[in-house]
Amino acid sequence: MNAVDPHTLTGAYALDALDPEERAAVRLHLAGCPSCAREVEEFAGTVARLGLAVAVSPTASLRAGVMERIATVRQVPPPAPGAARLPEAAPGSRGPRWPRWALAACLAGAVGLGGVAGWQYQRAGEARQETERARAANDGVAEVLAAPDARISTSRLGGGAVGTVVVSASLDRAVFAASGMAPPPAGKVYQLWYDDDGTMRSAGLMNPGATAEATLLDGPVDGAAGMGVTVEPAGGSPRPTSDPVAVLAFPET
Asked: What is the C-alpha end-to-end distance of the chain, expressed in Å?
């Protein structure tokens, strides 16, 4: 492990985002550093509160998505005992002799498999892009939660939902999460907004299929006093077109 100051790893430690060697080093450091131990307790409390605010059961589509991914991966079985072998080459020939119909069938099969392979490659590429986007978003969320100056505020929303916002002044970023928030209507999305003294500035869209996910708001906080959530057409709007379904004041930083 590279020499890293354990004082800088307390946030990542609370998020369980360290490798085993780093985690062991921080654990050893905490035994003799009361200030870092206190930081870890504070970070762990923040993570726990956010987790309680957004805890949900896995969606019904999760298993279907996993099974769909599995179906696109071709498995090559081991050869069975006594399986037929390729024709042996005649003495002095360059290889096995195949009837023309067999060669034609092999060529047609190769073309077909090429199409399947191309489709699978495209799907794999899309999956990798989705993974990279998700990783970048998760990294941004984790960075805000682990910031030494992160402040959290939880409020009751309409319909029994609970909203949580975490703001870091040093990063100038904010994270929003909700629990119990109903999915948006068909063809609609939840759009996030910064409240700049009554002027609403777009802060991105929530995932329509996972409204309980923690979402990193787009762009800097830049002095905004709070945030709001509206229902907008798919793709979002330049200005709010509905009454807010959630309004939260940012915690004091």
From this structure: 35
CA angle (225, 47, 26) in 5-degree steps:
125
Report the relative pairing of strands 246-249 and 199-205 from DSSP bridges.
unpaired
Q: Give the model confidence (pLDDT) of 169-221 as tens digits.
A: 999 999 998 877 888 999 999 999 999 988 999 999 998 877 777 889 999 99
Helix 34-54, helix 100-146: angle, nearest 10: 120
Measuring CA to CA, which residue among 160, 140, 230 is closest to residue 194?
A: 230
- Answer for the pair 166, 150: CB distance below 8 angstroms, yes or no: yes
Residue 42: other Cβ atoms inside 10 A: 15
Q: Where are the beta strands (DSSP E) in the chain?
A: 151-156, 162-168, 173-179, 188-196, 199-205, 215-216, 226-233, 246-249
The whole-model pTM stands at 0.52
Asked whether the beta carbons of 246 and 200 are under 8 A apart, the reply is no
